[in-house]
Amino acid sequence: MSPDSVAPGSVRSAAEVNEQIRALWMRAGGSLSAQERAEYELLVVEWAAAIRGAVIKAA
Prior knowledge:
mainly alpha, elongated
């Protein structure tokens, strides 16, 4: 997953991103390769942004 594949202001919910993170860990069997680690890091950033967006909407 390249940095360009995650668009700024993603419309995916935190739950959707979390599900993708879980699937990544399942595929990897609990040990991430360098490429999977990079994908994981991007997903975590996207997940955090989605959480912040949900908090801001709730406020």
